[in-house]
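Worked Example 4.2. Consider the chain below.
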Amino acid sequence: KNKCYERWWQAHLHWGDMITKCLDLAIMNRRWIAHRALGDKLSRWIIVYSYASKALLRGSSLGAADDIEGSGLVERGILSREELNAVCDSPCWQPHFAIEMIRAVLVEAHKVPGGRGLTFDEANKIHSQVFRCFDGVIKEMTALVGDNIPTRRHLLGKGHSRN
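Applying the procedure from the previous section yields the following structure tokens:
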């Protein structure tokens, strides 16, 4: 029983860390991304990361026939049908695809003409530090996906229900 509890506790801690990193990223987004449309896009991909991580842990996919999460994201306007198809067609794990989209949005924000993508222009000393903050959280989010895989193996390998 102790071993089972230890695994449960580790999974609990990892999932809590994932949620915390998503919240950290969302706060940085709202504070430092000045371009509203890009900020909204970044928020959507943070949400997708969470749902994709949950699906991965359950041994499922956002586009699986028995998983309503992907179509729910489309219905709520978080993903377009094309974006969901891109997530599902990607050869990488779906949470990693969401992370790559988050990175792409940050690059896009950095390239907005006149420095209007970020709240700090390039002349401000903090400008480069902003990307280091984003990058640090994103690296941790990536690592947490891998940290949860042993939990997935344990749960799915033991024949537990996904529900």
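The chain has a mean pLDDT of 85. Residues 2-32 form the longest helix (31 residues). Compare this with Example 4.1 before moving on.
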